[in-house]
Design a protein that fits this description.
Low-confidence stretches: none
CATH class of the largest domain: Alpha Beta
Number of domains: 2
GO molecular function, one term: ATP binding
Radius of gyration: 22 Å
CATH architecture of the largest domain: 2-Layer Sandwich
Bound molecules: the ligand C[C@H](O)[C@H](O)[C@@H](O)C(=O)CO
CATH topology of the largest domain: Nucleotidyltransferase, domain 5
CATH superfamily of the largest domain: ATPase, nucleotide binding domain
Protein name: Rhamnulokinase
Organism: Lucifera butyrica
Family: Belongs to the FGGY kinase family.
Structural class: alpha/beta
Strand order of the largest sheet: 17-18-16-15-19-20-21
Shape: globular
Largest sheet: 7 strands, mixed
Number of helices: 18
Pfam families: FGGY_C, FGGY_N
């Protein structure tokens, strides 16, 4: 497209990463995939780590490839999953690979903190963040408890998007949306909560200046320019928590519409102007994560396609090469389709064998034993969509209004069976699209920062116009 502008989005998810080029011609947006790679965590003894060095290598490879394709790159934006971080020492050296949020070192840590330092009611009232065993607050406390020297050496904490940006620009900061997943922020002030850190005995000095999406955070260092062949390209802070970018790119039709970002995790909620913390939202474990343009993402985490991903990994490792479309087809065709699991049950957090975990769960719950690929998969699909129904009911009870539609985005919408089942089980119209929502939200913030797009509302129209949505109406189920 003549006179187009080009933006690079680096999007890192728990199962894989991609470097994509966004092309904007003043009317429409087009995406071009430049580099895609698997994200394979590494088990070291009993500890699960992210392979950060390889992810950074793949990132730089992707940047080099973009430079080969397009000479005029306007800027770069980075988004990743939440909660995880790297620690730098006083020489700005990385003190070890970042832990994976499914690592078992945080077991019972949440309870230890709420039994000894601050009650759950008070912690929730301060932070508005849902209880998840791997919240950054709990991970840092585990570091203090099990590897105190690590925290003593640490001078800087950088969440993963901040950490990638640091190795590109040399600048240190914490971006607000990813920081909002940590349970270290005060939801009322949208700033760090020093009393909380003190109460738990954690060093506030490692936390960096909080910056908001839309700010230029630096330009590529000379060394990175030489390594990638790119020029002095600016790095823009975007909604660096992938879900924040996904929600930014979701063309919400009305204020009563819900979004459902569907990947390894399913994040289901609504967009609000201010946080909501009360007894009902606490009891239903809803979270208040920061969004772009000062919005609040009032949502709940549901274990999503992680179950299907692990089933596929299990079958592949046992010589049964099978793709996601085939798994979905066999689930839809399962003869005995009465199986259902609770995907958020602890047994599914990081089992060695996901198929065995599902068989045991169904057996223990008197459902009989799922045997075929279809039966095991349908148990997961029923579990995931059943959770969606519970979350929607919880939202309507807390918010006091009816959700009018669910905007479903992310990799999971490539599965038409899942989209239709979501409509059927929740009784809500599902509007599916775009697939690459995190990437598009990332590029949208770069367009807004560049003044090419006025604001979020205009950006969502651009995405709706350029990518559209597919509608699924609830159907009666046998
Ligand atoms: C741990 C999860 O990654 C996090 O809770 C979720 O918000 C996310 O980042 C999904 O990509």
């Amino acid at each position: 497209m003549p006179n187009s502008l080009f933006y690079v989005a680096a999007d890192f998810g728990a199962s894989g990463g991609r470097i994509m080029l966004g092309e904007y011609n003043g009317r429409n947006l087009r995406l071009e995939e430049v580099h895609r790679f698997a994200n394979e965590p590494v088990m070291l003894g009993k500890t699960l780590y992210w392979d950060f060095l390889r992810l950074l290598l793949e990132f730089k490879r992707g940047l080099t490839l973009t430079g080969i394709r397009r000479k005029n790159i306007s800027s770069i934006g980075i988004d990743t999953w939440g909660v995880d971080y790297g620690l730098l020492d006083r020489r700005d050296e990385l003190i070890g690979n970042p832990y994976h949020y499914r690592d078992q070192r945080t077991e019972n840590i949440g309870r230890e903190i709420t039994d000894n330092f601050i009650s759950w009611e008070k912690l929730y009232a301060k932070t508005g963040v849902q209880y998840l065993p791997f919240n950054t607050l709990f991970q840092l406390y585990a570091d203090k408890k099990y590897r105190g020297s690590l925290l003593e050496q640490a001078e800087s904490l950088l969440f993963l998007p901040d950490l990638f940006a640091f190795y590109l620009t040399g600048h240190k900061y914490n971006e607000y949306t990813v920081a909002s997943t940590s349970q270290l922020l005060n939801a009322g002030t949208a700033g760090w909560d020093p009393d909380l850190l003190q109460a738990v005995g954690l060093p506030g000095k490692i936390l960096q200046t909080l910056i908001r999406p839309g700010q230029v955070t630096g330009i590529l260092t000379r060394a990175v320019q030489a390594e990638t062949g790119l020029g002095a390209v600016p790095v823009i802070a975007v909604g660096s928590h992938d879900t924040a970018s996904a929600v930014a790119a979701t063309p919400l039709a009305t204020a009563q519409s819900a979004y459902l970002s569907c990947g390894t995790w399913s994040l289901l909620g609504v967009e609000r102007d201010r946080p909501l913390m009360n007894a009902l939202s606490r009891q239903n474990n809803f979270t208040n994560e920061g969004g772009v343009e000062g919005k609040i993402r009032f949502l709940k985490n549901v274990t999503g396609l992680w179950i299907i991903q692990q089933l596929r990994k299990h079958w592949t490792e046992n010589g049964e090469e099978i793709g996601f479309p085939a798994i979905s087809k066999q689930a839809a065709a399962a003869k005995n389709n009465r199986f259902v699991i609770d995907p958020d049950a602890d047994v599914f957090r990081a089992p060695a064998d996901m198929a065995a975990a599902i068989r045991d769960y169904c057996g223990d719950h008197g459902q009989g034993i799922p045997r075929t690929i279809g039966e095991l998969a349908i148990a997961a699909y029923h579990g995931i969509t059943g959770q969606y129904k519970q979350v929607i009911d919880g939202l309507e009870a807390i918010l006091g209004y009816r959700i009018d539609a669910i905007h479903m985005v992310g990799g999971g919408i490539q599965d038409g069976f899942l989209c239709q089942l979501t409509a059927d089980v929740t009784g809500k119209t599902v509007l599916a699209g775009p697939v690459e929502a995190s990437v598009l939200g990332n590029i949208l913030l770069q367009l807004i920062a560049a003044g090419e797009v006025k604001n979020l509302a205009e950006g969502r129209e651009l995405i709706q116009r350029s990518f559209g949505t597919q509608e699924y109406s609830p159907q009666p189920r046998e």
